[in-house]
Amino acid sequence: MRSTAAVLGSWDTKRDEMRYMRSRLENAGIAVVLVDVSTVVTEAFDDANGYSAQDIRRPLENEWRELAGAGRGAKIDFMARATRDFVVLLQERGQIDGVISAGGLQNTTLATAAMKALPIGFPKVMATTVATGRRSFMSVVGDRDVVVVPALADMAGLNFATRSTLNTACDCLIGLMSNRTELQRPDRPVVGLTLMGVTNAGAAGAIHQLERHGFEAVGFHATGAGGGVLEEFVRTGLVDAVLDMNLHEIVNECFQGGYSFGVRNRLSAAIERGIPLVVTPGGLDFVDYMVNEFEPGLAGRKYVLHNGTLAHIKLTVDEAAMVGGVVGERLRGARVPVRLVVPTAGLRADTDPGEPMHDPPVDEALVQAIVEHAGDGVEVERVAMNLNTEEFGALVADRMIEAFDHAGARPSTRQEVGSL
């Protein structure tokens, strides 16, 4: 039986591109269904092997009628939800084996609403103008493995430039569907671990120690997306325990901005599931901003340049207490004991005496707030080390192993993960 790809697009504006992608995929031996995600029907959907916008809206038809006089934005939001639900249903029923789309902001918003709800490992490709210029990939991929193909020319008809982009996108999907590998858990227990460049030495030490003791450590870059992916891995059972060494995204959540802003409710998944959790305050003592986007009040503060365009700005005592309070309140909800390991000689690189991010009163205010708000369910251990050292990483890995063995949670069989 041939594999089937869903080609998503607004029929009123992307009809030619959708047909072109269908032809390219069918020539490679892949069956195709077209899915019309139009919010305005100007051209009747005339494809016998596909789904019209009316088909997609049918389960929510009453809600759609109520939007008759609404603006474009409300209709796009509605259609994004309807498209997501419809495409996920096709995938769950085994009617599609991959998904592809191409377009500008509107088509990208509609198509990736569905892609970001599909399982990790399920083939998904988006050719988009949103991947060019000064834009964030998070709006396209979220916490999923969407393959993004930059569209240098707008998808406003077929020409030598757009055909090249569509060919590349189709070739990506053909490759993914032809060589699909299911996401599988290993036989050994899995620990999700967070890291950043300024705490990499500590994370490397932890990973090495965990692997020496028979664990598989999966690292997540806690700078605006990785932490969110870790939360999703925890919720869906892909990891058995969490060594959350870097909670930096909570700082940006508190500031409602900065380079790493975008993930909300960090720490919630491990606490909800009640799996072994060891936490260190890495990444909590600074906020990151592009140097040309400093918020009012940030200029003149202690900072270090992470690169030529991004600055790490040390928090004040009051800001540290605010951030620590948020972390502590989240830890308070834990149903199982949580270990908080505090390195008293610095929470990251550049924090030794005389270095630009050295500020013990800020670090202490942060830790004190965490402890005060966390309550009795959190065991606190202070060690005279810098977080960004392999020795500290090995120590917190040992604490993770102790917590894991105490919980008696070592899995013994390989499990294939079918959905997220």
From TrEMBL:
Pfam families: UPF0261 (PF06792), UPF0261_C (PF23189). Residues 4-180, 188-402 form the UPF0261 domain. InterPro entries: Tobamovirus_resist_UPF0261 (IPR051353), UPF0261 (IPR008322), UPF0261_C (IPR056778), UPF0261_N (IPR044122). CDD domains: Tm-1-like. This is Uncharacterized protein (UPF0261 family). It comes from Brooklawnia cerclae.
